[in-house]
Fold this protein.
Amino acid sequence: MPNSRHNIRDVYPPTGNEITAKSWLTEAPMRMLMNNLHPDVAEDPHALVVYGGIGRAARTWED
């Protein structure tokens, strides 16, 4: 079983006014989280660290 903490993927939020979720009520928080994981924004996006310290967006990619 591969170690999911070392799963490498880049997250890019959708832009524009087309939604990928069922409504804007769910699209907005999804885009905010995806923006925090964007490689140009996050401190260490592959380890899910989105800001200084040990704060993580999630424990693993599956969470």
